[in-house]
UniProtKB/TrEMBL annotation:
The chain crosses the membrane at residues 12-36. It is found in: Membrane. This is Cytochrome P450. The keyword Iron applies.
Length: 512
């Protein structure tokens, strides 16, 4: 007798019943999402409304393309679109203030807040009251006054950067300035966090910087967002497996371990005297509730603070320097201003003085606008009350987002938005509607979740740009706009995958 058929028949029956139930469930789910959901009245592609696999396809398979796909949806469906079964997106620059500054009770979207595997950091905190508790002890450290006190350290790092760049003049070697900027901003933010840094500015060709590790995590985050279990898998995998499969993510694990040991040293009082306060000494000494001072939470906070401080500033510098070197007439105007304002190139004044230089200020602002900050959408959720957009009533609990990229490239506000025109910021300009242009300057976000590091970022940007363009002449080397323009959204804007960075030759130096 053939026993196998006895067992095979019931298992085939169970399998086919399960498949039928599963398919029926999917059909009902899609029907609900398309026709019965409170969001079904909002315009947008049916496929996107039916399933998150749509976003998966654009962000995971096509690698960071969903942000552009959303722009395409707006062209077809108008200023408000349903971008997935649960979310709406608005492309209307005049709505920015309402969404981000009008309601301090708006929360982050829980699903997206864990995209880097940790949802206990200040920036990933969902609830607005808990966010305020976590942000409160950080605020004084990032005030203009505190950053001014920290400026001597920034100055010292800029001087080191400048000295290293000068060493490329005689050698005629190509210099990847993007690496230099990543090393610089990494050393600055690490010093502010711990009074210690990894001296990446001293590394060979500035290659020992944290950018590849953060970039790997950001790229992974699109997958992690769709399948949060991937973070658990990563966390449980043996170190040697991660190291051989994805060495850059392994570097992030090593950094995380290092950051925790720095925090443990502060807790144990095993740190050296510093001549400036540090973020983590202040955080640990603050009246933040004890449950908020766990090693796990502060380790994640350190990782995110370093990433936030490193990548945005380095990218803003890379973008601004590229456009200046690529536009000789614009660069000439900046150099003329710097020469007059800074007679001795060896003595670069402090940022309070530099911020009063109009053309430099316009270059900084235009560079930050074009570098965008973050390229991903920034959702907000009104938990209890419906939101309103024009005549649309948005059900409470619905995540609604806008993208800084859209506002900063809105052709109604910024003519030829992908052209570097510092002049657009001169003389208190207004839009054709009579609004101050600065209303639409949103690369740092706005409202209670706005970038906390804006003052630090500005001091870095002013000092580096004034120093480099008062002291050096650069020539682009095998670098063009495709090495700078956004081609992928990996949370922050990323150029084409095979870019070799912003490569220059240093052709002249005025000090040393
Ligand atoms: C050019 C430089 C920078 C740009 C364009 C930028 C942009 C942004 C943006 C767009 C946000 C999100 C705002 C939102 O969710 O609405 C943000 C948040 C944040 N940024 Fe920056 N950033 C820059 C530099 C820095 C620096 C130097 C630091 C220092 C550590 C920093 C730390 C943070 C933190 C901690 C948050 C989360 C704030 C919160 O949720 O309360 N950023 N930044």
């Amino acid at each position: 007798m053939d026993y196998s058929t006895l067992f095979a028949r019931p298992s085939v029956a169970i399998l086919s019943t399960s498949i039928t139930i599963w398919i029926s469930y999917l059909v009902c789910l899609v029907f609900y999402r398309l026709y019965l959901s409170p969001l079904s009245k909002f315009p947008g592609p049916k496929l996107a409304a039916a399933s998150k696999w749509y976003e998966f396809y654009y962000d995971v398979i096509l690698r960071g393309q969903f942000t552009f796909q959303i722009q395409g949806m707006h062209k077809k469906y108008g200023p408000i679109v349903r971008i997935n079964p649960f979310e709406l997106h608005v492309e209307d620059s005049s709505y920015w203030d309402e969404l981000y500054t009008g309601h301090k009770e708006y929360e982050r979207y829980e699903w997206m807040s864990g995209r880097f595997g940790a949802n206990t950091t200040t920036s990933s905190t969902v609830k607005s009251d808990l966010h305020a508790i976590r942000r409160a002890p950080l605020n004084p450290m990032f005030s203009k006054r505190s950053i001014t006190k920290f400026e001597p350290v920034i100055k010292q790092k800029v001087e080191l950067l400048s000295k290293r760049i000068a060493s490329y003049t005689d050698s005629g070697k190509t210099l990847a300035l993007n690496n230099a900027f990543n090393a610089f901003s990494g050393d600055v933010i690490a010093s502010y966090c711990f009074g210690f840094c990894w001296n990446q500015l001293d590394s060979l060709d500035f290659k020992d910087n944290f950018h590849p590790a953060y970039e790997a995590v950001r790229k992974f985050a699109h997958l992690g967002l769709q399948f949060p279990i991937m973070f658990i898998v990563l966390g449980l995998s043996p170190s040697w497996v991660i190291k051989s499969v994805t060495p850059n993510i392994h570097k992030m694990f090593m950094l995380q371990r290092d950051l925790k040991s720095k925090i443990t040293n502060i807790i144990n009082g095993a740190t050296q005297e510093r001549d400036h306060p540090t973020i983590f000494s202040e955080l640990l000494g603050s009246d933040l509730p004890t449950r908020e001072k766990t090693l796990g939470r502060l380790g994640a906070e350190a990782q995110q603070l370093i990433g936030a401080g490193l990548e945005t500033v380095a990218w803003a510098l890379t973008t601004t320097v590229f456009h200046l070197v690529n536009n000789p007439s614009t660069l000439k105007k900046l150099q003329a201003e710097l020469q007059e304002a800074i007679p001795d190139p060896a003595a670069i004044p402090d940022s309070l003085y530099l911020e009063r230089l109009p053309y430099l200020t316009s270059c900084v602002r235009e560079g930050v606008r074009m570098s965008t900050g973050v390229s991903v959408r920034l959702p907000r959720v009104s938990r209890d009350k419906p939101m309103k957009y024009k005549d649309w009533v948005i059900p409470a609990g619905t995540p609604v987002s806008m993208t800084t990229l859209d506002v900063l490239n809105d052709t109604e506000i910024f003519r030829n938005p992908r052209t570097f025109v510092p002049e657009r910021w001169l003389d208190n300009p207004k839009t054709s509607e009579g609004d101050h242009l600065t209303r639409y300057f949103v690369p740092f976000g706005k409202g209670p979740r706005m970038c906390i590091g804006i003052n630090l970022a500005y001091v870095e940007l002013y000092r580096v740009l004034a120093t480099l363009f008062r002291r050096f002449e650069f020539e682009l080397c095998d670098t063009d706009i495709s090495d700078i323009e956004i081609a992928h959204d990996f949370f922050v804007p990323s150029p084409k995958q095979d870019t070799k960075g912003l490569r220059v030759k240093v052709t002249s130096v005025k000090v040393y």
